[in-house]
């Protein structure tokens, strides 16, 4: 059912949000059956790409990560995705009443998870870790996630269209702040607790 909804988001997102609104997902189901799989896509892809192919800025002079440092980095990244989704879902639940919403935390997590699905899927680009390619794929996925957010908020949150736009913008701001926070935390971890070891490509 989850894969069916995920594919539906690519072809007819408005109808798919409506179908999701009628279903009931629990927080445990969302994390264990969906986030656990989605978060593994970028973590495993980047692990394979950086250890087997190597990282490159322009497509030449590849530098590989040592397996001993790539494994803890991938694990940390995997669980960071869990924290990010939970935090954004919590912020949506906290903000909703300001904009006239009245839904459960479960539904807030559904909104967060399916909105972020293109970003998770874009993690497959990590199998070919060239900077320009990863940035391009990431930007396309981000744009589509923003589109899904603005379409999904009035349906899932049951908020009038005029309020839904402002609410979606607030959620987008939170999401971008979380993204920047994840990048900053990653840089700090790489330089202190989880230093990365490189080997020649």
What would you note in describing this structure?
The protein is mainly α. The chain has one domain. Strands 1-2 form a two-stranded antiparallel sheet. The chain starts with a helix and ends with a strand.
Please state how the strands of the largest beta sheet are arranged side by side.
1-2
Q: Write down the Rg.
A: 18 Å
Number of strands: 2
Distance between the termini: 41 Å
Are there runs of 5+ residues with pLDDT below 50, and where? none
Number of domains: 1
- Structural class of the helices, strands and pairings? mainly alpha
Quaternary status:
single chain
Largest sheet: 2 strands, antiparallel
Order of helices and strands: HHHHEHHHHE
Strand proportion: under 5%
Helicity level, as a percent range? over 70%
Mean pLDDT level: 85
Shape: elongated
Contiguous helical run count: 8
Provide key terms for this protein.
two-stranded antiparallel sheet, 8 helices
How would you summarize this macromolecular structure in one to three sentences?
The protein has 201 residues and is mainly alpha-helical. Helices cover 74% and strands 3% of the residues. It has helices at 2-11, 13-22, 27-38, 40-53, 67-95, 105-121, 131-156, 161-191, and strands at 63-65, 198-200.
